[in-house]
Amino acid sequence: MSGLVADVATSVLMLGGAAFCVLGAWGLLRFPDVPARLQAATKPQTIGLLAILAGAALRTDPRYASGLVLVGLFQLVTAPVLAQRISRAAHRTGYLRRDLLLADELADGLPNTADTDETGDVHPADPAATDAGEDAAADADASDEEPPH
After folding, report:
1. How would you write the pLDDT of the chain (149 residues) with one tens digit per residue?
2. How many structural domains does the chain have?
């Protein structure tokens, strides 16, 4: 790229990336609950970092820009995984404002911390319900077999 075009593109990318990062930080402080804060912590921050890295890559030697690409890929891979793990932990520990949720798809899928012991092993709240479920599954398997002749 020519000098002036590269300077303008670098400036736009870096300022735009910085603006995304500032807006993400503002959302992190402003939003009321964990899922909303996770959105603010991951999406704008990732876009902002990628824009800053792209602006830096325009001004560096191409052989060094490959390191910036690796940093961007690492951010793209780790941010969603981290947000998902934090969200699950918040849901499991009850640190979630359920009045703000439109739908709770994990309500039946995760054990609560009240159902675990000190080692983290899950213990069902009603052992009779678990035994009945196992008996029903065994009866279903037995009904699939042909009766003896």
Report:
1. 578 999 999 999 999 999 999 999 999 899 988 888 888 889 999 999 999 999 999 999 888 888 999 999 999 999 989 988 988 888 788 777 777 777 776 776 655 555 555 555 555 454 444 444 455 445 545 555 555 55
2. 2
The reply to whether 55 falls in a domain is: yes
Residue ranges making up the domain that contains 128:
112-144
Cβ pair 79, 58 in contact under 8 A:
no
